[in-house]
Amino acid sequence: MKLRRFFLIFLLADLVGRAADLPALWAERLKTVAAVEFYTETETERRPTVAYGTVIDHKGTIILPPVAINPRMTPSQLKEFKVYRSGSATGVPGTYLGQDALTGWHFVRADPSIADALAPITDFAAKQFAEPAMAEEIWGIGLRNKDEDFAPYLLVSRVALVQSLPQRTAIALQEVAGPGLPVFNRAGEFIGIAASSFGQSFVQFSRMDRSGMPVILVNVEESSAFQLAPEILPYLPRIPTNVFGRPLAWLGASGLQPIDPEVAKFLHLENQSAVVVSEVLEGSPAEKAGMKARDIILAIDGAMLPRLKPDRVIVGYIDREVEKRTVGATMDLTVLRGEAKVELKAVLGDEPRLTTEAERKYFDRIGLTAREFVYDDAMSLRIRKVAMAGVIAHFVKPNGPAAVAGLRTDDWIKEIDGVEVKTFAAATAKLAEIEADLQRAEFVLLVSRGGETAVLRVKLR
Amino acid sequence: MLKFLVVSLALATSASAAMTKGFDRLLDAVVRIDVREVAFEDGAKRFASSIGSGVILSPEGLVLTNAHVASPRAVELSVTLSSLERVSARLVGWDHWTDLAVLQLDLSEVKRRGLKFTHAEFGDSSKLFVGQTVYAVGTPFGLTRTATRGIISNNNRYFEDSRGVNGYETGTFNTWLQTDAAINPGNSGGPLVTEEGKVIGISSRGYLGANNLGFAIPASTAKRVVDGLTHDGSITRSYIGIVPHAMQDFETFYSVALNNGMLVNSVDPGSPAARAGLRAGDILLAIDGAKIDGRFPEQLPPIQNQIASAPVGSTLSLMVKRGQQASAYSVVTEKLESRVGEEWVLEKWGLSVRKVSRTFARENQLEDTNSVLVIGVQPGFPADVAGLSRGDVITKINQQPVSSLDKVKAAHAAYEAAPKPVLVEAQRNHQVSLYVLKP
To answer: ipTM for the complex?
Structure first.
């Protein structure tokens, strides 16, 4: 026993001794990080956002984590991208390239003028990647805020746990990098990129509330979880060719719910995962393949769904299986329907127009942004595709005429001034006409909310 | 000056004389009601006690109170007479839409014990004026035979409360009397009376945190409901599925004459009105040839009541204006149902359920009514352990559709007899999940 401990200490000492000088590794690898600043413009506001990203190629392309951009924003609302090197007060213009559906990354490209000052993370990839061992020392980069010139600082930790969520993800003892920034091993090899931090549960006591209140704290500036390099490197070429990341592979099996071990046992489905399909979307590839609501998916392309922990993770796994494939690719699905196993062959389609792709138009005098009615709206309102018509109130200006009349965000506008508005063009033409008519005292909207309608009188004067 | 004084003295004497006779008689007719009722909410059968008020209406011992005091959940009802003697009673019927219930005193007990009671009389609530003195009599916070005085603050108040009577809808078919006579918890079901002791309303509710804003169901409504409940044990109403709105502010837009018409704000999908072709934004001008006036919100309950009063299955002819065109639509009425279905508790599973009603299914966009809603689970019991929670909609048990509450009860009885795992399919926000209830 004594001998073994001695051996361990000896081994550690040896590793430290052989590892390159950390300051030298640090200086080289700082070139792989950047801060990206942009403005989000809404109808009434303009707000700066800063996100941190990792450089992926020699052209100055940077990936930002999925949460960097509010999913409700459409790319045309994102303005003035600027890229800053760590420790730099001046940025250069950047271009937003779009989001990749599989990884969720947002891609931004820096002006070529700083391309030389940046280095792609691929330069530091290990020749032969080895999953970090438990307790292995790792380090990463954090960036301070803009008022501190995005000054870089060192974070050091050790690997505590590696899990499939479904991506291979390591969790460190403490924060190891800013979200979106790279993590390295002691030899300076790239081993992963920090994901959004996990929440940590605490109980908060105060003078007012001595019984304690459970709270979850999330460190938004640093993270202790990172996705391992094999979940990053192969996907770097997925640079979107358009801001919406089209084409988007689509199956149309919606509301996937994992089954828990007890249910699996009841259904004799041990040692694998399975998910219940809540709904099969109208006109989707899943529907065409003959999938039915309440089918239980057991296998994809003949391979049983792997057993992942927690149960919920399998849903992300299936989503990724779809998104890894291309539009037009075939996906073989084995489902359990009642007692019978059924084989389905789905040909993946291109996802219907997204909410972010929908046309929008703001009417300041009315205090309303009308948005084109898209497929997702029909699904969330639970109506048939054929009933798709009208527009959605995407934004209702607080205390504006529409808001005072009782209109709320996400209301479905079906009629304007007693006239049914079938299309976005018809609705916006009508609204533009009302907005331009300064003599107008009022107009009437017929809106639907939660399956019930209401007639609203909008007073303009 | 003197004459005037004499006159006013005479008036004062006559009023107080009336009070001694009529009011005294009324006081003897007001009762305290002690209720023990069962609740199913927590995945277990639990009993709760409460106190309310009531008024005896007939020599046969009919007692009028609120539906939120005495409901079908009551397992034990006892009435304390003005003589302080306690008599048991049973529920004759209730109507949550108007928040009224009728009890029957146990007359054999009354006779056996040689008890006496008087009964009160209804006054004409339509003749009440704002400022008129009224008294509320009841059992606030258990203080029996408490009388408080106030005035009629408003004789035609409109409000609806979709969950007002223990989760059931109320206020759709009547307006309310508003009074500043103090109405406190426990006053519920007690009468609001004139100086002469005539019952012109049934005290029902007050605003919490407000000063002296009390509300009572007018006698005109109460009389009708008492007749119906005494006769049939329930009030059957017709439903056509339109959600009305006052015309006020919309007359110009729809170019209709003032004081004619009611706006159809929404039409329930799949309802008789929807099937007949009515649409939101239509203006209802007349029902069976009789013009209607829904200019102000206060005018809506009588119109709703007119529709509801039609026999179930009868055909109403609705004159409807859409755009410039007015045309007649024939609508066949259906029976009005509450959103709240029958409740039950499956004790071995620690699971409380409520049958999904047509209204609930429509409001929640469920495909059909073949399901039950989870209204409570008991921690540590099979339903809770499996992951079911309040708000889930159970659609299948052991792969059989839940077409009735009896099916659920049967599955539970089978489990009780021979416990073995049960597969449950349920939806939460339309997401389907499976659960196993294990012994």
So the answer is: 0.85
